[in-house]
Amino acid sequence: MPVRPPAEIGMSLDEVDTPALIVDLDAFERNLKRLADRVRQSGVRLRPHAKTHKCPVIALKQIELGAVGVCVQKVSEAEAMVYGGVRDVLVTNEVMGRQKLRHLMALAHTARIGVCVDDPQQIADLEAAAAEAGLKTLPVHVEINMGGNRCGVEPGEPALKLARLVEDQPHLSFAGLQAYHGSAQHLRGWDERQRAIEGAADKAALTRDLLAANGIPCDSITGAGTGTFEFEAGSGVYTELQCGSYIFMDADYGRNLDKDGAQTRAFEPSLFVWATVMSRPAEARAIVDAGLKALAFDSGPPLVWDEPSATYERASDEHGRLAVAGATNRLRLGDKVKLVPGHCDPTVNLYDWYVGIRHDRVESLWPITARGAVY
Amino acid sequence: MPVRPPAEIGMSLDEVDTPALIVDLDAFERNLKRLADRVRQSGVRLRPHAKTHKCPVIALKQIELGAVGVCVQKVSEAEAMVYGGVRDVLVTNEVMGRQKLRHLMALAHTARIGVCVDDPQQIADLEAAAAEAGLKTLPVHVEINMGGNRCGVEPGEPALKLARLVEDQPHLSFAGLQAYHGSAQHLRGWDERQRAIEGAADKAALTRDLLAANGIPCDSITGAGTGTFEFEAGSGVYTELQCGSYIFMDADYGRNLDKDGAQTRAFEPSLFVWATVMSRPAEARAIVDAGLKALAFDSGPPLVWDEPSATYERASDEHGRLAVAGATNRLRLGDKVKLVPGHCDPTVNLYDWYVGIRHDRVESLWPITARGAVY
After folding, report:
1. A278 contacts B96? CB cut-off 8 A
2. Chain A residues in contact with B321 (beta carbon < 8 A)
3. Interface contacts (A, B; CB < 8 Å)
4. Closest Cα of chain B to A150: distance in Å?
5. Lower Cβ count inside 10 Å, N or C end of chain B?
6. Which residues of B touch A96 (CB under 8 A)?
7. Cβ of B315 and A298 within 8 Å?
């Protein structure tokens, strides 16, 4: 039983219970359209990452604007997407374990499901599971390490070896390379990000050419995020973009700089945690009802969007302490504020509902059906 | 629709899908009993904090062992507890907002519900809501600031003023003081914690005596946590203990020191995140499938419980990077490991199910019905 929604359709924003995850629908729709338009011009495919929103309603909006499908990180996320109507899902991750593989193969009977590998053992396990499930062919990407030192084999020969092994399996097909450069996304300077992606594209191109020279065509090179997509799109190497956060933005992405050195204006914040001032024990201190269980803090505290005199200073489980500058102090007990999360993805994963707001009214309640889908 | 459980009753632990929140039932039951026994000897009441477990099944086990009821932080948590069979719930927090107050009063028709205040406005709002709901009387605690500078009025006169105001309301009754010293819980040294609670008890006693001198008896002084409960229990001032984390412990509480200077042995870790090594791209690097959406990091990374050669080094949304010492390197692709969360409360809030394990078998699946109950 999920927790009751914090709002009803038609309510005014003021009446929405707190903390709630609210979406400024106008800003959200502008973000959706802005990326779709830019990608359409570039000629590459867009496959947005659903790990950001975990919501099939949003996935279908992205597809309606031209996306070929979505990415997910987990098998249970793929389930939420397929059960919500998405027909093309790439698991941008390695999948290990019998339970996970059985669930993955079950999905592959009703939707196009891709997956990544970085080890021969994963290929053997995928082959066995696909054969057991009676699948004709499962598309498999080889993940290459772009320098983030997380998953992925090294570019070049190690990737060729795995691609060959995939091609040798009767129930698997080599679908391309995953070349996501995660650690480039939050490099602050535009030039830094550009250089990082030039390096990544070189590694991917080298690997693609090595594969081609060995008779293995590489139809898809997939990667990119909200911080760097323009570079991958223009690289001539990448064929598919995986941006996720662009729909919402967050405080951390907001600190990236554009080419002119100004804070990024590529997209605008559309996701907020709506919180109440629940205690006002001192002039310089306001306590809000949103803490560690209502916001992710791995990329820093949230920004107080609509009250410039206040700074979110410290979180405990259910409380946030705002430092309030005396001179412009407008926050009263019971007031509600919008907080821009430091990091959108793990913040979304704390909520069961998006409360869609337009002109200060609740227009929609979208269930976050992949919340907690961590398997 | 909550996410499917990661296990079935009777499965072996090895078969449990990952990441999963597993409870070592033997260790958990020893923790439950250990605190219950110690509190029974002390003569004070035990009202464990359900913000830790968010699960009525566990609340009822605590009550069976002598607890008078539970604490919660939020109205929606109180709903989960009352709907799960708990008849006495203290909201150890201020409650602001019309929606919250209506829900709170609805609960007070079927269970004993207490609440805290630190401002005259909250008292006025509670009185209006209680009158509107036709309640006879709602027990109200005045929260005093023990030095953590979160919520709470200052001890002494400011608390007396609020207590009088509560007493003046026809539908409210003054129930006592909340004197929780949160910032003392993780002071590492035993002596430091003892001194901090001596100071807190002095402030609470001073306030209690001032109230008594003004004709307001103070039947309940409630507070204490897992780090300090022995001091509150022996203070002669506190009448009720609010410990929560003792049932699970976590890496952060594990760093507290006992009187002899050794790491605390008061309780033992019983809560783990069960994770799979999903990628093994280099000898010194293992990637597990539990990251920011599977663990809370506000009090540091998790400990790798059953593999001393591995250190959880870095988290991203869905991945954890373990640094593995070469010489004793036993971790293979597909292996599963137990991680002790840095902080139990916000980690629990990420999961829908506890997987109870005894002798490496799944004995129980308990729904975490207050997960996401942040309103």
Report:
1. yes
2. 149-150
3. 201
4. 7
5. N
6. 276-279, 289, 333-334
7. yes
pLDDT digits (tens, 9 = 90+) for B139-177: 999 999 999 999 999 999 999 999 999 999 999 999 999
**Is A151's CB within 8 Å of B298's CB?**
no
Global model pTM greater than 0.90: yes
Q: Please write down the HEC assignment for all residues of chain A.
A: CCCCCCCCCCCEHHHCCCCEEEEEHHHHHHHHHHHHHHHHHHCCEECCECCCCCCHHHHHHHHHCCCCCEEECCHHHHHHHHHCCCCEEEEEEECCCHHHHHHHHHHHCCCEEEEEECCHHHHHHHHHHHHHCCCCCEEEEEEECCCCCCCCECCCHHHHHHHHHHHCCCCEEEEEEECCCHHHCCCCCHHHHHHHHHHHHHHHHHHHHHHHHCCCCCCCEEECCCCCHHHHHCCCCCCEECCCHHHCCCHHHHCCECCCCCECCCCCCCEEEEEEEEEEEECCEEEECCCCCCCCCCCCCCEECCCCCEEEEEECCCCEEEEECHHHCCCCCCCEEEEECCCHHHHHCCCCEEEEEECCEEEEEEECCCCCCCC
Which site among A180, A374, A375 would you substitute to test the B interface, given the most B Cβ atoms closer than 10 Å to its Cβ?
A374
Residue type, B290: A
The residues, ordered by sequence, that sit 6+ positions from A202 with a Cβ below 8 Å of its Cβ are none
ipTM of the complex: 0.96
- Low-confidence residues of chain A, pLDDT below 50? none
- State the Cα–Cα distance between residues B71 and B201, nearest whole angstrom: 20
Whether A72 and A61 have beta carbons less than 8 Å apart is answered as no
CB contact under 8 A, B289 and A96: yes
Measured between beta carbons, the chain B residues lying within 8 angstroms of A369 are 1
CB contact under 8 A, A278 and B95: yes
Select from A293, A313, A344 the residue whose CB has the most chain B CBs within 10 Å, as the one to mutate to test that interface.
A293
